[in-house]
């Protein structure tokens, strides 16, 4: 109950959607929910985390490994293929409790009804492994030809990325290696199978793949199956990935599918014990929230990985597989409250990529750390100056995401500080966290502009979270976050006082003495727009209220092409008050204790009808603030929108002509935040855990666990109040 996501019927028009919806993964790779017989036109992908390639001048993107699950069944030479076969029934489902993808298709053909079933999972105990059991039965006795192997002709947006294919086969194991074009990464995929039947086996290779063909006469009514253990390694993991992949797939096969599966399921049960959020009274919300949590769990970098989570998860190559502020501001809270070790891994990625952020700051003539808007493996910015393509001219449009979305550095500093405060783990500061915070603060002090006549520092020429308005002055969110960064830099230096040697060495290493004085000045004089005394409104940026006050619908009606970009120089929203996503409302959510309820309510009511929610990051923030001001019924539709974004597939698919589809882990994290921090009203301040429930009408009860430092707490919340106890 409420653990199964399923779809019935062929629905070929939804192939891409279902690839996202039925994704499995384990932090190291994501494997899309496509059928075993699919080729690259249907976008199957074993999308690898943290390994990228560039072809020519096209965008750098993550590498999709050769597809080790490729399997096609021929009966009397007739392919049994969901795309072309005659179908009696078809279903696809995701068992979220066990993180297993299942498929069942009944074909009708020369051998009567032919049933194919498969189960697959991305191992949670060894994240290099992908397991599958594939079974079939025929109504009539017939000659069967099963082709199964490793298909290296993979789907790429800006590929091909893999070259120099080479093949290996020995007994029941086959392997394919290939080399990436830009950096020469070696990618190895090995697969070992066990058959429940005997047949004539022939190994054959294609230009980019290695397969076995197994032929035999299948008896009517008898069930046949094989299991497959696929191992994926790259030269980022080990020196000789081929050797390691063969060894891993061989030994996984020896362990056996059954045992591998039971260990995997055990591990997932553990995860759910800690991460599940129970909602009584609303099945639909329960399913959607669980699905959101499932999505976050399949992306969590585990087993010592120090990669982070890309904006489209591991569902493919959209958004260049890059890491955005989505991670720190939208996903991190879930991990911080349920799995602090993973939260620390995410933070480590930012610490490791500090040099990339320094290089970017220097590139623009600033000091400190300006983190990449679209960060790849070394912190280099994958965001191009021309990040959107105009639908009319097909020409790249100059956008300023890369150079002006300076709030990214504050998100990194915020994430580190939140993790430090929540875990009380000083090693995080000592092992690079403090250095990152200081460098981010230094960036803002270097970016800020002192307005002598106003006697204040300002941040001019920026883009706030609302990307439709470029190059604005004093975006309230950005200024507030920069002020926060400076404040925590001062606090981090304070926190290091009892390790004076380390503190001194850090200040010396960064040559930070003068910066400390500058930070003190900025702390006092950085301008942060305040609520207007009469209206209570915070202006999103200087001059925002003077823009045309059009409705979202009016602005939408001005589109000539539905895929047209709303922002940039000529976008329909650019000279209106219509905003893409939560901006001031995000500020008020993050710093809710600093503003009165009246101010929060007035701003929510003002900005809500003007927000297009063109980013999946937006609705959860409206849900959170609505809960904070005691209006759960306002919050509920936004919560549902957030929690079901990858279930309904109803999200923006294009920015200009650029395809931006895939899963939405920030929205998934937002769903958790809206439920736990919003409806349950969970707060942890100075070690004190409280709840202030604002449950939607239908919800009778919520229960969940959280971890604070070493302790796990059970939280139960009803409309009347809550109970929290240590486990
Ligand atoms: O980070 C977001 C941004 O805020 C809006 N556009 C999409 C990005 C990736 O999710």
TrEMBL record:
Domain Glycoside hydrolase family 65 C-terminal: 682-721
Gene Ontology molecular-function annotations: hydrolase activity
Transmembrane portions of the chain: none
Glycoside hydrolase family 65 central catalytic domain mapped to chain residues: 290-672
Lineage: superkingdom: Bacteria
Positions of the Glycoside hydrolase family 65 N-terminal domain: 22-236
Keywords: Glycosyltransferase, Hydrolase, Transferase
Record-stated family: Belongs to the glycosyl hydrolase 65 family.
Name of the protein: Glycoside hydrolase family 65 protein
Originating species: Enterococcus larvae
High-level lineage: Bacteria, Bacillati, Bacillota, Bacilli, Lactobacillales
């Amino acid at each position: 109950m409420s653990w199964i996501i399923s779809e019935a019927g062929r629905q070929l028009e939804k192939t891409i959607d279902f690839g996202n919806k039925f994704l499995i993964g384990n932090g190291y790779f994501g494997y899309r929910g496509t059928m075993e017989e699919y080729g690259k036109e249907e976008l199957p992908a074993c999308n690898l985390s943290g390994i990228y390639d560039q072809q020519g001048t096209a965008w750098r993107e993550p590498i999709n490994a050769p597809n080790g699950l490729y399997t096609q069944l021929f009966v009397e030479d007739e392919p049994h293929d969901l795309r072309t076969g005659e179908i009696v029934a078809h279903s696809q489902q995701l068992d979220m409790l066990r993180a297993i993808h299942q498929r069942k298709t009944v074909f009708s053909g020369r051998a009567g009804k032919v049933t194919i079933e498969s189960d697959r999972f991305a191992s949670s105990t060894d994240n290099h492994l992908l397991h599958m059991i594939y079974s079939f039965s025929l109504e009539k006795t017939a000659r069967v030809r099963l082709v199964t192997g490793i298909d290296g002709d993979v789907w790429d947006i800006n590929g091909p990325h893999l070259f120099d294919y080479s093949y290996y086969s020995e007994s029941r194991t086959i392997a394919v290696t290939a080399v990436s074009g830009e950096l020469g990464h070696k990618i190895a995929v090995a697969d070992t199978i066990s058959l429940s039947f005997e047949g004539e086996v022939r190994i054959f290779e294609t230009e980019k793949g290695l397969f076995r063909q197994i032929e035999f006469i299948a008896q009517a009514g008898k069930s046949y199956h094989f299991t497959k253990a696929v191992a994926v390694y790259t030269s980022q993991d080990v020196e000789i990935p081929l050797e390691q992949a063969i060894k891993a797939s061989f030994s996984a096969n020896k362990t056996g599918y059954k045992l591998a599966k039971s260990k995997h399921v055990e591990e997932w049960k553990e995860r759910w014990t800690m991460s599940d959020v129970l909602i009584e009274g609303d099945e639909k919300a329960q399913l959607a929230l669980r699905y959101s949590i499932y999505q976050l769990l399949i992306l969590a970098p585990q087993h010592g990985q120090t990669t982070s989570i890309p904006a489209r998860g591991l569902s493919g190559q959209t958004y260049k597989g890059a890491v955005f502020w989505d991670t720190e501001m939208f996903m991190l809270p879930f991990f911080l409250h349920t799995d602090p070790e993973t939260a620390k891994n995410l933070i480590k990625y930012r610490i490791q990529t500090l040099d990339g952020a320094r290089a970017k700051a220097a590139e623009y003539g600033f000091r400190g750390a300006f983190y990449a808007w679209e960060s790849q493996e070394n912190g280099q910015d994958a965001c191009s100056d021309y990040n959107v393509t105009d639908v009319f001219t097909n020409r790249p449009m100059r956008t300023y995401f890369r150079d002006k979305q300076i709030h990214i550095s504050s998100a990194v500093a915020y994430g580190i500080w939140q993790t430090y405060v929540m875990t009380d783990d000083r090693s995080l500061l000592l092992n690079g966290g403090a250095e990152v915070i200081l460098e981010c603060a230094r960036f803002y002090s270097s970016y800020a502009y002192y307005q002598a006549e106003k006697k204040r520092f300002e941040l001019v020429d920026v883009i706030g979270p609302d990307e439709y308005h470029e190059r604005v002055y004093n975006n309230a969110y950005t200024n507030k976050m920069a002020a926060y960064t400076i404040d925590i830099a001062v606090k981090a230096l304070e926190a290091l006082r009892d390790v004076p040697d380390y503190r001194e060495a850090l200040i010396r290493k960064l040559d930070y003495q003068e910066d400390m004085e500058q930070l003190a000045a900025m702390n006092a004089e950085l301008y942060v727009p305040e609520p207007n005394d009469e209206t209570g409104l915070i202006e999103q940026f200087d001059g925002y209220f003077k823009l045309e006050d059009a409705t979202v619908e009016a602005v939408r009606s001005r589109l000539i092409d539905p895929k047209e970009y709303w922002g940039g120089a000529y976008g329909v929203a650019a000279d209106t008050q219509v905003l893409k996503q939560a901006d001031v409302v995000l500020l008020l959510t993050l710093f809710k204790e600093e503003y009165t309820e009246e101010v929060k309510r007035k701003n929510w009511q003002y900005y809500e009808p003007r927000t297009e929610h063109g980013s999946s990051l937006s609705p959860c923030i409206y849900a959170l603030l609505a809960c904070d001001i005691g209006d759960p019924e306002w919050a509920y539709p936004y919560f549902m929108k957030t929690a079901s974004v990858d279930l309904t597939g109803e999200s923006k698919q294009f920015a200009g002509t650029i395809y931006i589809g895939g899963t939405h882990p920030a929205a998934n994290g937002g769903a958790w935040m809206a439920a736990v921090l919003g409806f349950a009203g969970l707060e942890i301040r100075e070690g004190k855990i409280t709840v202030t429930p604002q449950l939607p009408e239908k919800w009778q009860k919520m229960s969940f666990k959280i971890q604070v430092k070493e302790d796990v707490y059970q939280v139960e919340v009803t409309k009347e109040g809550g109970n929290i106890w240590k486990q």
